[in-house]
Write a structure and sequence with these properties.
Blueprint (H helix, E strand, L loop, with lengths): L2 H7 L1 H5 L5 H6 L24 E5 L5 E9 L3 E10 L11 E15 L6 E3 H4 L18 E11 L2 E24 L8 E17 L2 E10 L4 E9 L22 E3 L4 E7 L2 E7 L2 E3 L1 E11 L8 E12 L4 E10 L3 E3 L10 E10 L5 E7 L15 E5 L20 H7 L7 E11 L9 E13 L32 E4 L3 E3 L14 E4 L3 E3 L6 E8 L2 E5 L2 E3 L7 E10 L6 E4 L3 E3 L10 H5 L11 H17 L1 H4 L5 E9 L2 E2 L4 E10 L2 E2 L3 E6 L2 E6 L4 E7 L5 E9 L8 E9 L2
Parallel strand pairs: 35-42
Antiparallel strand pairs: 1-2, 2-3, 3-4, 4-5, 4-15, 6-7, 7-8, 8-9, 9-10, 10-23, 11-14, 12-13, 15-22, 16-17, 16-19, 18-21, 19-20, 20-23, 21-22, 24-27, 25-26, 26-30, 28-29, 28-31, 31-32, 31-33, 34-36, 36-37, 36-40, 38-39, 38-41, 41-42
Length: about 725
């Protein structure tokens, strides 16, 4: 087996046995647990106490292993996402990244006096990790055990060093069906899980913050706050951290008085000092693991214009598969429109497209230092390549991403992206003090990871590729029934149906409204609520005597959600639901003894009354007043955006009925069948707090009238 093959097979285990891992295990910061190569979707992650998992308001979930490394600070591993509508996209969790962490923070000052590597020279762990109390973390602060040497003394402590909280992200989608007000509005307000830590390096304090939103996007950020570097006025270019060069800094406060003595002569003069401008060159290590694929592919997309079109310049994009490790510098290697994605060619969404994540990085790269020139560098995963520069791992000491590319001779199939997120900070008066936080961020955006956005609503599921015009009122995505299907006599459709053994019944489709150009219809026949046959026609048999026959019609079209409705029933004889009342028959026989007269009176009276009453009671049964007797909401108080269970009970004349019920809560509509007069369904409540009316409508049947009941649903935080 090749060296590359071994590296890929042992990838998960090698991560936690790299340099410094033995020491970390000794102090309890790491647990070495082998990870199965092909685990089930919901198999627990092998990270024990370091597991971070959170279900967001819309039902989406993220999970990962999170820890504080003594040097790298916040390290997140085995990052997986479960969409809110798992039954539509995929079940359980799916892997996105194997590991994510900052790999270097290079800080050169414009004066040329100093240059720091804050990660490899200091680190974001150990004594530099800050405690996150309730005034800092508004969510859950996770304890971080630490053991390190400080000023010659062993320090062992546990502090709340990782913050996990759910934050609002604002409007995620907004679509209005009409140009000027009115019509149907589709809007989502999103939330995200933010995982963060804070480290103090001298006067600067850095927040590492990774945000995982409810649509699958990841935003990686480094925020700088604390204080600007302390300065003093001096005319000595070599001895002053800040000088008097206005081109390399920004004036803070007024002039300072400087007194110098030369040859016994003392001179006093006014000098303006300048806070030195500087770079924050953050390079993040992003180890991709989309759907745990053994092979991952890197694509680079470049855009150019071959000429003018009829009304605008033509712009064409070309994707190139990168077969080997590379660094890309804006200018010689790519332009401002270029972007990259990592895909798993063997993992496809429901449309058959390879799942991938795109790197969105609109930051500036510092082109004055070789290692910070590339906007992005891709290499194959190797356990010794831990830092972007000044590498501390003994397996490839003091090397950088530029060396990693040169030494990587394998096909690029296990990609690690080294993303360069530069920020040039020119201080200002308002930075005094403390300094407002300033951010440098990039995003990892799902591209074809899903066939549609994970929170797609039923009313928009049919909009996937070429489609006809969709409108909730006249051309809905889900077929809407405007006239129920009817049962007729196949031999004489215009005649009243008179049930008899051997008679063939035909079901009509009913009338439907849909955005689909054509609908197909499926028919299912029911006897007293139990399915007995399919097809548009049904021939009555002896088994149908004393039953109510109905037909359910399902309207569907390829690429569109389907809908089902049920016809009114045809009564054949005396169905079970009508046998219960006994008031009529018991009145007459009570005058006569039941022993003797039974034989004789039966012949005479039976023929007369039977013909009349047998036809009479059946038509009267639809007149039974149905009642939606109970609508229960579980739980009684629901959190915004969560699902509530709705239980509906319908009776007529004290007995359970068949048929179907529709519940409507604002724009959410669910339809379900009754079983023994009862049915239940889950429905998502609004994301705003308040009391909302839920309307439950029973559509009636051959034995019961329609009925409606309203129930208040309380949404609270």
């Amino acid at each position: 087996m090749t060296e590359k093959g071994v590296s890929m097979r042992k990838k998960s285990l090698l991560r936690i046995t790299a340099a410094l891992a033995p020491a970390l295990v000794a102090v309890g910061l790491l647990t070495v647990v082998p990870v199965a190569a092909q685990a089930a979707e919901d198999t627990p992650l092998a990270c024990d106490a370091s597991l971070i998992t959170k279900e967001l308001e819309n039902g989406a979930s993220w999970r990962m292993c999170g820890r504080i490394h003594p040097i790298k600070g916040l390290v997140l591993e085995q990052i997986e996402f479960k969409p809110a509508v798992g039954d539509y996209e995929y079940a359980g969790y799916k892997r996105v990244l194997d590991q994510l962490n900052i790999a270097q923070l290079n800080v050169p000052y414009d004066t040329g006096h100093v240059q720091y590597n804050d990660i490899t020279s200091y680190g974001f762990g150990k004594q530099y990790l800050m405690e996150q109390g309730p005034e800092v973390c508004t969510g859950e602060a996770l304890d971080v055990p630490q053991s390190f040497t400080y000023s010659g003394n062993l320090v062992e402590r546990t502090i709340p060093g990782i913050c996990v909280q759910e934050d609002p992200t604002g409007i995620m989608t907004h679509a209005q069906e009409t140009q000027i007000g009115g019509g149907t509005l589709y809007v989502d307000h999103g939330t995200a899980m933010a995982v963060s830590s804070i480290s103090k390096i001298s006067w600067y304090e850095y927040q590492q913050r990774v945000v995982f939103d409810d649509h699958g996007q990841i935003e990686v950020g480094l925020g700088a706050t604390g204080d600007i570097a302390p300065g003093w006025a001096s005319e000595s270019a070599s001895g002053a951290f800040f000088g008097t060069n206005p081109k390399a800094g920004w004036p803070l406060s007024g002039e300072s008085t400087i007194t110098t003595t030369t040859g016994g002569v003392t001179t006093t003069k006014q000098v303006q000092a300048y806070a030195a401008s500087h770079w924050h060159n953050a390079i993040f290590k992003v180890d991709f693991g989309i759907d745990k694929g053994e092979k991952q592919t890197v694509e680079q997309w470049d855009f150019s214009s071959p000429g003018a079109g009829t009304r605008a310049p033509i712009v064409e994009g070309v994707g190139t598969t990168k077969s080997a490790a590379f660094s890309s510098v804006e200018g010689p290697d790519h332009d401002e429109l270029t972007w990259w994605r990592v895909l798993n060619p063997n993992s496809k969404n429901k449309d058959g497209h390879a799942r991938s994540y795109e790197i969105v990085n609109n930051n500036t790269a510092n082109k004055l230092i070789p290692v910070t020139q590339p906007s992005v560098t891709f290499t194959n995963y190797r356990s010794c390549e831990e830092y972007a520069s000044a590498n501390l791992n003994a397996g490839c000491p003091n090397k950088s991403i530029l060396d990693y590319v040169v030494e990587d001779t394998h096909e690029l199939t296990d990609p690690v992206a080294w993303v360069n997120v530069g920020f040039h900070h020119t201080d200002k008066d308002e930075d005094q003090s403390p300094m407002p936080i300033h951010w440098q961020k990039f995003q990892l955006v799902p591209r074809d990871f899903f066939a549609q956005k994970p929170t797609i609503q039923e009313a928009r599921k049919c909009i996937n590729g070429p489609f006809s015009s969709v409108n909730a009122v006249t051309k809905p995505c889900t077929p809407e029934n405007t006239a129920l299907p009817k049962i007729s006599d196949q031999a004489d459709p215009a005649a009243v149906v008179v049930p008899a053994v051997g008679k063939t019944l035909t079901g009509s489709a009913g009338t439907w409204r849909s955005a689909a150009q054509s609908l197909t219809y499926a028919y299912t026949w029911f006897r007293n609520g139990e399915a007995v046959a399919t097809g548009q026609d049904y021939t009555l048999t002896e088994a149908d005597v004393n039953s109510v026959i109905t037909v359910k019609v399902t309207a569907s079209a390829a690429g569109y959600p389907s809908a089902t409705v049920e016809s009114a029933g045809v009564t054949f004889g005396t169905p079970p639901a009508t046998e219960e009342p006994t008031d009529g028959p018991t009145d007459e026989p009570t005058d006569e003894p039941t022993d003797e007269p039974t034989d004789e009176p039966t012949d005479g009276p039976t023929d007369g009354p039977t013909d009349g009453p047998s036809a009479g009671p059946a038509p009267q049964t639809p007149a039974l007043a149905a009642s939606v007797t109970a609508v229960k909401v579980k739980p009684g108080k629901v959190k915004p955006g969560k699902k509530a269970t709705i239980v509906v009970t319908v009776t007529a004349g004290g007995a359970a009925v068949t048929g179907y019920v529709q519940v409507r809560l604002k724009k959410k509509v669910k339809t379900f069948d009754l079983v023994a007069g009862k049915g239940k369904v889950k429905i998502k409540v609004p994301k705003k707090t308040g009391s909302f009316d839920l309307v439950a409508t029973y559509f009636g049947s051959s034995t019961a009238e329609a009925s409606t009941k309203t129930k208040a649903v309380k949404v609270v935080r």
